[in-house]
Amino acid sequence: MLRLSSKHDKTLWLKRLRALPCGSADICELQQTCVGAYDEYLNAIESIELVRHNLEPPDEDAAPDASAEVVLKAAALAQNAQRKLRKSRQTTQECAENETVIRQRYKIR
């Protein structure tokens, strides 16, 4: 659900995931891993939006500011977003793998 949702809905789904009770240590660990993955993903998306915002002209008619400072700042923000996305991908993979284990352990379909 989270993956297919809008950014706003992702935030709501993440809040719901955080609020779910967990009955055992392994399920709580899975929940924390998945929450961390999606939280990192949303942080990356925010970083990407910040890059876009920094490169946008102040108004529709203005030309984009191509000063070296603006470009360097945007590049640093983009690199940070890329790191966050990479970490999110790794943690999301871990979440999916752990979910499979939990489903098998508790015979959940």
Architecture overview:
This protein is mainly alpha-helical and 109 residues long. The chain has one domain. It has 3 helices and no strands. The protein has helices at 7-19, 25-55, 68-105. α1 (7-19) runs antiparallel to α2 (25-55) and α2 packs antiparallel against α3 (68-105). The longest helix is centred in the last third of the chain and has 38 residues, at 68-105.
Q: What does the main sheet amount to?
A: none
What is the β-strand count? 0
Q: What is the radius of gyration computed over CA atoms, rounded to a whole number of angstroms? A: 18 Å
Q: Specify the number of helices.
A: 3
Binned, the helix content reads: over 70%
How many angstroms separate the termini?
16 Å
Question: What pattern of helices and strands is seen along the backbone?
Answer: HHH
3D shape: elongated
Low-confidence stretches: none
Number of domains: 1
- What would you call the structural class? mainly alpha
> What is the residue-averaged pLDDT?
89
